[in-house]
Amino acid sequence: MPLLDPDGLTRRIIAMAERILYVLVPLILVAMTAIVILQSVRAILQVNLSNIATSAMAGLLNDVLFAIIILELLSTVIAHLCKGGFQVKAFLYIGIISSVRRILVLGAQLSSSTRFDSLAFKSGITELAVDAGVVVALSIALYITKLASPTKRNSEEKSVAVN
Predict the structure, then answer these.
(1) DSSP secondary structure string for all residues of 121-140
(2) How many domains does the chain have?
(3) 132-143: per-residue pLDDT in tens?
(4) What is the Cα–Cα distance from 111 to 103, expressed in whole angstroms?
(5) CA–CA gap between residue 121 and residue 54 (Å, rounded)
(6) Domain limits for position 38
């Protein structure tokens, strides 16, 4: 005996709860983005322009790139709600942006460090290399998905047929 009857009340309640949550997720993502942007604006206003600290700028860069990642997640959720299905390319873009964000922030932190602890420096360089490898791997995966995309091939075939 199945746990959920396809036509039963339990199935309808769960389906309604799922719809409500899919509406709440974009709203939460918008609120998160607004909070991150407001914190970034506040940080900019508090920076002493005569003595700009690289670590403060690295933090600001981190916040702005984090806002971009949240917005990419938001567009992915909206695309899922409108089109359905799993948006592989969107998650690859988010992964690339996240890795580049970490590379930029870590690079800024390493360059602003006044003390170079050998172990911390080696650890930072290793993390930079791993993040660079992740960017390359995700970029290759993105390229492969674009090559394998049937919508791209169909649109290219139509444009060739027209010409």
Answers:
(1) HHHHHHHHHHHHHHHHHHHH
(2) 1
(3) 999 999 999 999
(4) 12
(5) 17
(6) 9-162
